[in-house]
Amino acid sequence: MRKNTLKEKLAAGKAVFGVQVNYPTPAIVEMLGYMGFDWVLIDNEHGSITVDNSEPVIAASELAGIAPIVRPVGNRPEIIAPFLDRGAWGVQVPHVNTAEEARAVVDAVKYEPVGHRGIYGMGRPSLFGTAGSVGEYIEKANRETLVCLMIEEAVAIENLPEIVRVDGVDVLFIGSGDLSVSMGYPGEQAHPDVQRMMERGVEVIMGAGKVAGVSGPDDTIAKYLDMGVQYYHSTVDRLLHASARSYLDAMHRRAAEAGL
Q1: Which residue segments constitute the domains of the chain, with CATH numbers given?
Q2: 252 is catalytic
Q3: Out of 46, 233, 241, 252, which one is annotated catalytic?
Q4: What is the tens place of the pLDDT at every residue in 181-232?
């Protein structure tokens, strides 16, 4: 198991910025790493990432110095463990609504004595069996693997006081998109009621000494930085859309000025 630079930055109190990638294209992730992003969310929930095609994406992440975190499609050991065996440095599990569900994530991610992940000591995480004894690998993997829970529904915010007490969780990430839908404001992440609910969640998370993360419109992020929220990500689709739209608008405007 490699040194998890993402966990290291979070422990030092730094803000970390990632990008969600839905496509199994190693070059995209490599490029993002060289641009200076801290981590990449390799998305099995909404994208075309699978267990098999995730491995070269994870390898490209490591090459470019960007931490590979996988979002699995569900909260089950048989879904989570294969991505970790391919070398993911952690998981960001969607729709965790209760403390029981939070404990299930930790149980799937961690080896004994913390959890019940099945051991395979000859894969990428153990540098193909060259990183010391099995016991040494287990100890390091349990220490270095990041566990992030996605808090995406109003019921999860209500249950946060119990969820934050679950041992083994590093980050609790409030997803504004699904939260807004669950509150009856689909697509309105900046709605005052949604923002108040998110702020309430952040206060509970940080009050428990956990790392908080959020998503949302760019003009809301400054507020969360001021609150001490450390963990953020955009999406490669969103960044491409914004850049392409800006370029096309500028070119069309200049062409019109030239009479073309």
Answers
A1: 5-257 (3.20.20.60)
A2: no
A3: 46
A4: 999 999 999 999 999 999 999 999 999 999 999 998 888 899 999 999 999 9
